[in-house]
Amino acid sequence: TLDKEIQQIAEDAADKYIEKGAIVIMKVGTGDIVASVSRPTYSPNNIADYINDEDSPLLNRAFSAYNVGSVFKLVTASAALESNISPDFKYECKGSITVGSNTFGCHNRAGHGEQNMAEALAHSCNPYFINIGQQIGGDKIYNLAVSLGFGKANYFAKDYSSASGTLPEKDMLKGPAVTANFSFGQGELTATPVQICSMINTIASNGEYYTPRLIAGKVDVNKNLIEEPTTPPVQVIPEEITDTVKEFMSEVLKEGGTGYTAAPYNVIAAGKTATAQTGIMDGDREIVHSWFGGFFPYIAPQYAVAIIAEDCEDGKISTCPAFKYIAEKITELNDK
Length: 336
What we know:
This protein has 336 residues and is of the alpha+beta class. The chain has 9 helices and 17 strands.
């Protein structure tokens, strides 16, 4: 299913902005992966040279599981809306929120002040989503995550699959602190770039989940394509809810949103940023990953994109400009 020209654009974006990480692009309204990139890369002519490389270039990072972070707030927002939490519900962020005996900080230590759901997503406000997670309960978020493909591997061909990622044990979500972590994508949760791209694809596809695929079919001796049967899509989020979530995501790319550096000049796009804590320390510094998940165009979306930059705290100079580059170049390509 890979598209040669789109794959090249994704490769170029990775070379410009992603030292270690991955990019996955899917065609909206299908499960087709049209680009899949992992960095750092390697030469297939000299595999032995890379076996002991500490940067693990032989690892396919597009199919590997990572801590997720705030891009998962799209799942929490969707579950909240489906649970009849109004998008106008307001919560005052004071820089942290206490759940039981645990205090969870916001990335804005001074607090965002009063936020509705659209503002909380645009500013990536942790306490807001922890609060609504406590209101609706972890089960609602968990069940939607499962429907979106979290926690299960994607199988593309015989002996060729992605990692499954991890979800917290459902029984653990009875604990308010575990649900709090889960609500903003932290804790036990891990996912692959393919899974994050599938989630974005589902929102862009009006709530229909398409099973990701990499193999379009086989070619017979006469070079005729014998297409592989595709799995029918499943409506996992009501369309009217994805309409609202898409509006929220468009605000992320506007001035004041955490993803403003991802806004392309030639097409209107939408997305969500994340800075995922890993709990892994490098001396006295915690390693964090930057994510961006988005789609474009905003009206009649065609492409869903997931980008991760390993050990990179600032998505404004990595994942966001990588998305901007991809959206601009693919739009230019389609306008030819």
